[in-house]
Automatic annotation (TrEMBL):
TPR repeats lie at residues 58-91, 100-133, 142-175. It comes from Hondaea fermentalgiana. InterPro entries: TPR-like_helical_dom_sf, TPR_rpt. Gene3D superfamilies: Tetratricopeptide repeat domain (1.25.40.10). PANTHER family: AAA+ ATPASE DOMAIN-CONTAINING PROTEIN (PTHR45641:SF1), TETRATRICOPEPTIDE REPEAT PROTEIN (AFU_ORTHOLOGUE AFUA_6G03870) (PTHR45641). Coiled coil: none annotated. PROSITE patterns: TPR (PS50005), TPR_REGION (PS50293). The keyword Repeat applies. This is Kinesin light chain. SUPFAM superfamilies: TPR-like. The lineage of its organism: Eukaryota, Sar, Stramenopiles, Bigyra, Labyrinthulomycetes. SMART domains: TPR. Keywords: Repeat, TPR repeat.
Amino acid sequence: MGDGEMVVMNSTTRQLVQMQYGEDSFDGTCRYEEALAYYEEDLSISKEALGDRHPDVATTLNNIAGVYDDQGRYEEALAYYEEALSIRKEALGDRHPDVATTLNNIAGVYKAQGRYEEALAYYEEDLSISKEALGDWHPSVATTLNNIATVYAHKGRYEEALAYYEEALSIRKEALGDRHPHVADTLNNMRLARERMMHASTKRKSPLRKLACLWGK
């Protein structure tokens, strides 16, 4: 997963996984298959105790999707994220922050696959809900703006990327303070976007310079 939702599960399951695999089980060093086994058991119990369409079931589905996402098993991740999204919309309403979070996660998978237009569509819906539910200056809004900017940067649309990064930076400074790590991350993203924009501009000009030299001869 990217800048989106942290893995969340019921506390008993989390304690079991951490006892078995350590505190960093979900920080990229996890033994994924064992983690999935615990999540699947969590899912089975939650469905039996709470019903198939309960928000806690959606949380576990989201967590399973996150493991597949981390493994690069994107189609499986999307299937679980979509099921979580369906339940959250039904149980919580279309404009709930948890719906926005799931949209963000789905967009992250599309971004990882290079499916940038689909990623942007999900991020924009996430942004709309987050602004409505949390306010324009919430850190989650900044996270989505940052993610949108990253997609534009991947597409080589650096001016648009920088505009979104600037907005994310402004919110993060306001909400988190000038010295927060997320502020530093956004500044670094902006630096990289500017460097790539300059590099792309140089590459475009290079053939014209060669042609000018030829004509000069």
